[in-house]
Each structure stands twice: as C-alpha cells, then as structure tokens.
Amino acid sequence: MTPDDSGLPIRRSDPALLTELRSIVGERLSVAAAILDRHGRDESYHPVHAPDAVVFPRTIDEVSRLVRACAARRVPIIPFGTGTSLEGHVAAVEGGVCLDLTQMDKVLAVNTADLDVTVEAGVTRKRLNEHLRDTGLFFAVDPGADATLGGMAATRASGTNAVRYGTMRETVLALGVVLADGRYIRTSRRARKSAAGYDLTRLFVGSEGTLGVITDVTVRLYGIPEAISAAVVAFPDLKSAVDTVIATIQSGIPVARIELLDALQMEASNRYSKLNYRVAPTLMFEFHGSAQGVVEHAEAVQAIAVDFGGADFQWATKPEDRTKLWQARHDAYYAGLALRPGAKGWPTDVCVPISRLAECILETQKDVAESKLIAPIVGHVGDGNFHLVILVDPDRPDDLARAQQLNERMVARALAMDGTCTGEHGIGLGKREFMAAEHGDALDVMRMVKRALDPTNIMNPGKILPAVGPEQ
Amino acid sequence: MTPDDSGLPIRRSDPALLTELRSIVGERLSVAAAILDRHGRDESYHPVHAPDAVVFPRTIDEVSRLVRACAARRVPIIPFGTGTSLEGHVAAVEGGVCLDLTQMDKVLAVNTADLDVTVEAGVTRKRLNEHLRDTGLFFAVDPGADATLGGMAATRASGTNAVRYGTMRETVLALGVVLADGRYIRTSRRARKSAAGYDLTRLFVGSEGTLGVITDVTVRLYGIPEAISAAVVAFPDLKSAVDTVIATIQSGIPVARIELLDALQMEASNRYSKLNYRVAPTLMFEFHGSAQGVVEHAEAVQAIAVDFGGADFQWATKPEDRTKLWQARHDAYYAGLALRPGAKGWPTDVCVPISRLAECILETQKDVAESKLIAPIVGHVGDGNFHLVILVDPDRPDDLARAQQLNERMVARALAMDGTCTGEHGIGLGKREFMAAEHGDALDVMRMVKRALDPTNIMNPGKILPAVGPEQ
Q: What residues of chain A lie within 8 A of the CB of B292, using their CB?
C-alpha cells in the first residue's frame, strides 16, 4: 500500500480486486512473473515496470467492468497492445492492472462504399490490410512495428505514408473509448466531417491511455492506386539528400513516401535486410497515382534529385521488390540495433518545419560524431520528421548520460526551430521533461483536461504530463 | 443583475467594468444601440441578442486584459469576426462584452518555404488570398462568406475545396488562444505533425468561442495548381446527380470540388448571379493538377456522369469564367434568400457517409415538398455534406414551426445514417437540442472539458452545450 494524492491507500494487490477481476474475465487474468514482465516493457531502453496483474478482455462490456473495478479502488489501468511503443508508454510506474487488448481482434465492419472500416482495438495494421486484400482498399498508416490500431490511435502513430495520407490524426474517423468512470462513448459518427461540438476524436488520438481506454477504432481507407512506383537514390552527402526533399515538398509534387536513411543506416539495413545498396545518404521514394501520373511525378522528382547530385536511381516497380524495399525500411530500427549486438535502442524523433530540416539533421549528425555513440539517422523527411536511434548499453551509466545529452540537444534544437520534441513516438515517460519547454502555459490546459476526465489519476498515470509536486 | 450558477450577481453593465475596459482599449469601445445590435445578430433567422458593450482590441495583450476584466466580474465574453455564422454563435444570450476582432487584421508571417502562414484572427479569407497573390500559394478553405480566419477556426469552417484540401480541422496548424483566465497560449508548433501531448489545436478548432478567444491562426497553404479546369453538368434528376458523386468518390478520382445544386437553387442562382444554366439538378466540378492530370481526371468523371445521364457539359478553363462560377456558388445562400423577398434564411446542414447520401437528399427533398416551404438544396456532396436553406418569415410562427420540423426530420435522418447534425455550420444556439442524440454520454465529456477550461462559464455561454438544469 502506498498513499495516493488524497491520502487514501492504493490497494493494488488487493485479493478482493483480483477476485472481482476474475469474476469478469475468468481465466483471462495472469499474475505470472513472465507475463507481468513482458507487459511492463516496450522496445526501447526504458526499464521494466511490471503491472500487478494482466487481464485480457474480449468485449467493451468487460473493459468497462474492469475499469469500474479498478476505479473503485483507485488502482491504475494501463492499456496494452503489442508493446512496441518506444517511450515507456506501457510501463506500470505505479503498478496496477494492465489491460491487454489483443484478444479484442475482430474487424467489425468494412464499409467499402464509404472507404472506412471499424475494428476492435487489438487488430494490427498488417492483419487489417490482409483482411482488406480483396476490397481494393488499404489502410495507410504504417509505423515500423506491426502495432495494433488501438495503440496506434493512442500514440498518434505515423509512418512512411503520412506525407501523402496523413497520420492517425487525419486517419481516425471515430473511436470507442471506455472512460475513467467505466462509461463507454463513441467520439464521433462516420460522416467525413462534422462541426457538432468539441473534437473528442482528436482529443483521444495521442492521449496515450491517460484519458480512457480505446476499445474500437474507425479509420479511413484509400483505394489501392492504379500505379505504384518506388525509387532508391544515393547522394554524395546528407545535405544534398535533404535539400532534394525540401525542394520536392516545396514544389508540391505529390509523393506518397519520401524517406531518408543516412550512410550508417544504409550499412545496417544492407546487412540486416540482405540488400546491396550503395552505403551513402539515401532517399527512398514512392509515387501513387495513375500510370501517367506516376511517371510524371517520378520524372519531376528525378530532375530535382539529379540537380542535387543524386545518382544510382534504382526503380522498383514489381510488387515483390517494393515489398522488400519497404520491409527493409520498416525494419530499420531492428537493423540499427544489430549494429551493436546486445545494445538497446534509445530511439528519439523530432519534427521541424521543412525549411529547417537540413540544418537540424546536419547539426544532429555533428553531435552524434562528437558523442562517440553509434546512432543512425532515418526519417519521414517529407513531414520534417526524423529519428535518431542511439545504441546504448543500459548497464553503462556513461552510455545513458551521453545518449541523454544527445537527445536533449536534438530536442532543444527542434524547439528553437518551432518544431516539436516528438513527431510520432509520443511522450510516454521519456519526453515528459520537454513538455513545459514545448508547450508553456498550454501544458496547464492539458493538465486541466486530464484532471477533468480522470480526476483520480488512474488512467496510465505518470505518462505525458510531467510531475508537478504531490497532486500530479 | 441576474444570478449565475453560484448565486453571485453578474454585473454586466457595471460602470466600473466599462471604465476598466476603456482603460484598455480607449475609444475602441461602443455601447451605441446600432453597434450592439449589429454584433448580436448573424446571417440567419436567429433573433438578435445584443451584447452590453462591444470592444475592438488590437493586440493579444489587450484581449488578455479584457478577458481578465470580464472574468473578475463573471461577465460573458463573445468573440466576433464578420458575424456571418448561421446558428446564432454570436448571440449574447446572457449579455456581456463582445470582442470584435476585426481590427486584429495583420498577416504576421508568410512562410512560403514551409507552405504556411500565421495571421491575426481578424484577417478574412479573401484578404489572405490577396496577400498571398505573388507567392504562388493559396489558402484553400472557402465558406460562402468572406469570414475571418479566427471565426473559421472557431466554427471548424469548411467549403467547396474541403473534399480535396480538408476543412479547418486539417488546415489549422496552430492557434493562439486567450484562455478564460486571461493567459495566452499557443496550441502547437509549426511542425507538420507532433505526438507531444493532447491535441489542443483540434480541441479549440470548432469550440465556437466557448473555451477561449482565438487571437491568431497558423494555417497550411497549398501551391496554386499548374492546371485548373471546372465543369458544370446538368442531370435529369437529383438521384442521377448524387449517384454520380458517389461513384466519383468511391473511384478515388481526386476532384478538387464537387458541388450539387438542385433545380430550385439553379433557378435562384441564375437569377441572382446573372447566369444562364439549365434549370436542373446540377453538379459543379473542379480539377486541380498537372495539365495532363487534370484532363485525365476530368475525362474519368465525365464518363461517370454520362453513365448517369449527365449532359450539357460546360467547361470553364479561363480564370474569369471559373471565378464567376464559384462566386455564384458562394453566393448560393444569398441567391436562395432572394427567392422570397423579405424572408430570412433558416440554413441547416447535415453530413452523412457517402453511401447514404442519395437516400438522405431524396427523402429530404420529399419533406420539403410536403412542407410547402421554399428550401433549395446545395451541398459539398463529395464530403457527404449538404445544406437546406429554408426561407421563413420570422414573424410567422407557422413558418418557423414548419421549418423546425423540416430541420428536425433532416437531422434525425442523418443521425440514423451514422451522420452528424451539422457538417460545417456548427451548433451555436440552433442545434444544441440535437447534441444528446448525436453524442450520448460523449456529451458529458464535452461538459467536463468546458467546466475544466471555463469553470465560471463566461466564454460565449449558452452555445454548443444544451442546458442541463441550473449549472450549465
């Protein structure tokens, strides 16, 4: 028992609570150490914080009853999807009950005529696209991991297609959410637009489980384009590659993907994904449209790239070649990790206005060189978003200290450029310390919203909002 | 003096308040009846509710001090732009001080390299586009009226371009907002995407002045397309026209605009805008892209339209012809009003999933016929959004009763189709009664947010949220 902010005891391993949880989910509850451990870690360097119990609900009603049971005892609730987040989002820092939603995995309604689909929170993006295979439609948001749609909505996930199709912010049409008091709401209707009150959909997208548990997700779909073409282009230096991106975006050419990998990442990806590209700063492009349109856009971008010294254009028009290319891109994180066997990743990302992107990346690369750490750079550069994967041995305090400094310098630089401390990974535990610098008094508005929707602070406590003395 | 929810008196015409307001804005304060009256009305049938005073701030600091002065006395604050809203958004239903923001009319920063611009809230959409004329960029959101960007953000405005470029929801990158306690915040950075905490930008977009006063707006811009082509097509009946829209959207052809006008609206627009189109259900299209792309898309849509009986294609490729065409479309509301001299408009709009659009429009047209009222139908049909402009004599209770019934039936139908009670006009006063039916318990979440950000209910009280006994 530990005191909470009101002085009441939190009885998180209360046997009566476990009995009540079992009365809701039966055998779908675990307190086995291995299961708890797996649910207290993500794919990053963040230390494990295991929950006290893990439950596997299968219905909205079960989620609602689980939340009520925890709420009655002020026990924290941590929603969990695939555990592939990168900023400690799922760490049970105050203990509590982890709601593993992966058994809520039904595709509820495919509305091909309306280009949308509603799924339970535990459906993953790859499974959804397999399900959609015969419809001619696809779900466009593609973070590296095969994450669940609930998790992707909760973290406002993004990916390589965002420059053309948007992030989860633009893609989610409506959410089903169980509130901190156990009530279930739908945040919106399926209409493409609405001016009917506050935008609760966007409020819950990116809220990282701190305002409620997302149980179902309605997202937009897009028609698979008539023609798709991808190209890989090597550049003499990083600046030339980034300047090509900036010129492409400013020219308004509708690229579907435009990804940057630095020379180190290319080396890592060649090795991990068994590719044979030149080890040089590289852009990966994809174009979607009509047969004619794709050729037109590709030629326009090629002309820009050549102006900046781009060479060795390799085109991938066959589906299997493109699949291999983008799988390699999605595996960039794991490829980076393999550069230093046994290392953990300290993955960080920022996003800046496109006009500042070259400067931000180049200065970051200088910092990396000075840090003596291994840290490849990759980025969804069409959005002004890039990542640094700093390889650390979590048992070496010196590694962690240097990684932290690298991260702090990168974030400070992005903020000074009117950018954000994270373009797509989220805040979780890892970036709370930057929230005040980024948001100023707007952080207080976030606190007001949090207190209003979760007055006893049971929904994934300790995430997003930095501590402010005893009450948060 | 009237009691507020806490039993404290609201001293709205307190001479000390007027003195304090004058100390902030000097002579830029009016209590003249004509000025008060003009600020208590919009462009619809809603009755005038004049504020007690109108102030014309010119800086964020002035807005902040005005809000603090009112907040100290619990006096309502109503932000005002051009007064072109349609659901009573600016009505001072509890009296108070109107903040006319039209003197905050500076374009603060055009970032051509980042395709964005920051303006003060009082800049109108046409002035912004004039300002941008030499940049090759344009601001895409275009409601009928030449509204201010502050007002457009506050009402989540939309328009004919939304099917391609999005509404204010997608277009606003960041807002400056003065909170109910007088503090100024920026809701976001200029980066194109962010996962850094709750999406305050989207929370304030569409909040109709009930959570704070929007003082500045950063929006995305787009490059003026290389080629633009517009077409007007007449159909034998409304169903054929709507079915053409549905097939076009489902096929994924990237139309920039796709507008429906029924025969009555065409008659009204021909007369008002001195045009000579066939009086028949009509679609107006626009295509944006490369010279080749525009031809390709136009041909694809033409083929669909011909399949559904579309005829009399009239192409407008010259800029002056297109300007005339779209000005006529934007004037559709005023053209409709002219059908019944002296009448006021009861404009209403709904938005439904595109698969239900034909059914929704046809049943609405039947209701119109039975109502014996004059009510043309126009719509941004590519989004599933359409409008009915019911012409009423506000002095005839029978007119109002029939219009109300028509509106209620249309909204109920849209909700039954998983649509929304308003696609773009907003809730204001006029649609509060539908909020519970549309949102269920999610309406409580909106109330929680409102109470958290505006605990004394001084920010445009009486809007969006329906009354629930004494405390709201």
A: 292-293, 296
